Amino acid sequence: MSTPNTSQPVIQLRELTKTYQTGEVKVKAVRGVTLNIERGEFVAIMGASGSGKSTLMNTLGCLDQPTGGDYLLDGVAVAGLNRKELAKLRNKKLGFVFQGFNLLSRTTALENVELPMFYTHPLVSLRERRERAVAALQRVNLGDRLAHHPSQLSGGQQQRIAIARALVNRPELVLADEPTGNLDTRTSIEIMGLFQELNNAGITLVMVTHELDIAAYCKRIVVMRDGLVISDTRYKNRRSAVAEIALLDQAEQKAQLA
Ligand SMILES: Nc1ncnc2c1ncn2[C@@H]1O[C@H](COP(=O)(O)OP(=O)(O)O)[C@@H](O)[C@H]1O
Ligand SMILES: [Mg+2]
What we know:
This protein is α/β, with parallel strands linked by helices. It is built from eight helices and ten strands. Helix content is 37%, strand content 26%.
């Protein structure tokens, strides 16, 4: 495995474009985005529905090739790569978290987290894969739910399994598209707390959200409109999930006493 070059940004986009062609109709979903994301950042991508957020994320995630411009992931030009090379890069460098969790339902938490290593580390022993999956689940505080199936767990717990799965290959970058979209307020803050903890430990995160309340936990907010970045702001006093949860606890205790 090549060691990451820590002096350069994890993501470098230069005039990136993505045009979809459906029959006669062309949709310019991303129209020229120039952006660097450094190691250790925690970026929220915001914008109205249809502004190109998911298209940008799919391109960052090497799920789709751009139609123009340059994308360097950890210094590697993505444009020249074929499908197989893209998949390899994706497995090695990236972890994904989705709104709908995307877990296999007839499979335990542990097996869900082991699965990515089956493809990326086929030569690693079964035992080592198991140990790494257990460690990832412990990291998201689910060490006591290894044998549970997704249906036996809450939405927040299911999302934490998905986060453990995203972490198990030790990615350079975690991409999350509306990770709290299916969760209630408190659970959303708990998930943001987990992301803040992972980010404090050095993991780079890029997350799509349409909720300002959720973006407030990130260090930087990039806003898109009509396929372009219209603002890019760094926050010094972002919200702390730990502090917000403590406030919620206090309010609940007061309500119980009243
Ligand atoms: N696979 C696709 N084929 C054709 N058009 C698409 C496709 N995916 C997205 N689009 C179009 O591209 C634009 C941006 O979509 P999207 O990136 O999903 O925005 P967002 O995630 O911000 O809601 C929209 O006009 C959408 O209809
Ligand atoms: Mg979207």
